[in-house]
């Protein structure tokens, strides 16, 4: 055998060894895949079972989230409404205070006029009474004078 033939035979032997190694690896991979198929099937079944169990839970969580969102929206709307009501009440209160201040000023002015009129009436009445007393005193004096004159004329 020549060197070329030896090299060809050696090359074929290497190819056979490599092919045999690949075949062994493929057989081991197939066996390993078959061995992992059952646990993977169990895992897949467990995941499916968990998924089926979690669907109602997720549905309930979604409903609770929607309800919380609606409640938050209502609370925000109510808070806005309360804020508007407070603003309106504050404005109304401000207007009422202004009106009350105006009325107090008007009442104070009216009371000043009433007091002035009452004082004037009191002074006028006092003067009238004084005049009447003097007039009465004068009439009494005149009566005495007339009586005294009448008593002298009768004598």
Which tags fit this structure?
1 helix, mainly alpha, 155 residues, rod-shaped
Walkthrough of the structure:
It contains one helix and no strands. Helix content is 98%, strand content 0%.
SSE blueprint:
Layout: H1 3-154
Briefly characterize the structure.
The model has no long low-confidence stretch (mean pLDDT 88).
Shape, please? rod-shaped
Biggest pleated sheet: none
Radius of gyration: 63 Å
The proportion of residues in beta strands is: under 5%
- List the total number of helices: 1
Q: What's the total count of β strands? A: 0
Report how far the terminal alpha carbons are from each other: 212 Å
